[in-house]
Design a protein that fits this description.
It catalyses: D-sedoheptulose 7-phosphate + D-glyceraldehyde 3-phosphate = D-erythrose 4-phosphate + beta-D-fructose 6-phosphate. Its main location: cytoplasm. It holds the Pfam family TAL_FSA. GO terms for molecular function: aldehyde-lyase activity; transaldolase activity. With 217 residues, the protein is α/β, with parallel strands linked by helices. It has one domain: TIM Barrel (Alpha-Beta Barrel), CATH 3.20.20. Helix content is 52%, strand content 17%. The chain has eleven helices and eight strands. It has an eight-stranded parallel beta barrel, surrounded by five helices. α1 packs parallel to α3. The structure holds erythose-4-phosphate. The site of erythose-4-phosphate (E4P) has 11 residues, from α7.
């Protein structure tokens, strides 16, 4: 499963990229606003740090205007992935851009039928929002299971990008279902490394090592 960071914070992206485990980045207008940075500038800087897809979202609502925005965004770097909302105009834009070889991430997906439409529109990634789904009394992971079944039934190439990830259990369940990608806030990605028994084990080994009086170097 690929790991994307859901953030526009450069320090976090640099830190995660240095682990060699970061496969891409997703941003959205709220994350750009939170960063306080210029959209074009920060997207370019993220694209320079990460080799994989960097999602940059259009804000227009009609197809023609989305295409114009996408034209500007895709000039930022080769690894820019245009993010469009799951609407009729968004999918029309998705079809046009992917037919032209541009990566597209269809965002704000909340049903398996929407995911089916996005795959038919040739989306590179579909982003079902599991956290927001859970928040509204639905089961986010059931949505991922349904999309996985549909995509497997018809051998769609669209990758399932689990979004709105809130905790490490979302990551585990995504991997068990066989989702292609998950995007999570840096805090959640860092939590994946932790286990209390790992810390305890290191402490114990180091204590015993001290007793040997030896050093490796
Ligand atoms: C995905 O691409 C979105 O940016 C993101 O996962 C939204 O998550 P949120 O529900 O935490 O805002």
């Amino acid at each position: 499963m690929k790991f994307f960071a859901d953030t526009a914070e450069l320090d976090d992206i640099k830190e995660l990229a240095a682990t060699g485990l970061l496969d891409g980045v997703t941003t959205n207008p709220s994350l750009i606003a939170k960063s306080g940075r210029d959209f074009m500038e920060v997207t370019k800087e993220i694209c320079d740090i990460v080799d994989g897809p960097v999602s940059a979202e259009v804000v227009a609502l009609d197809h023609e205007a989305m295409m114009k925005e996408a034209e500007v965004l895709r000039k930022i770097a080769d690894n820019v992935c245009i993010k469009v909302p799951l609407t009729i105009d968004g999918l029309k834009t998705c079809k046009a851009l992917t037919s032209d070889g541009t990566m597209v991430n269809v965002t704000l997906c909340f049903s398996a039928n929407q995911a089916l439409l996005a795959a038919k529109a040739g989306a590179t990634f579909i982003s079902p929002f599991v956290g927001r789904h859970d928040d509204n009394g639905f089961n986010g992971m059931e949505l991922i299971e349904d999309i996985k079944t549909i995509y497997d039934n018809y051998l769609f190439d669209t990758e399932i990008l689990v979004a709105s990830v809130r905790h490490v259990t979302h990551v585990l369940e995504s991997a068990l279902i066989g989702a292609d990608v998950m995007t999570a806030p840096p805090k959640v990605i860092k939590q994946l490394f932790n286990h209390v028994l790992t810390d305890k084990g290191i402490e114990g080994f180091l204590k015993d090592w001290e007793k040997t009086g030896q050093s490796i170097i």
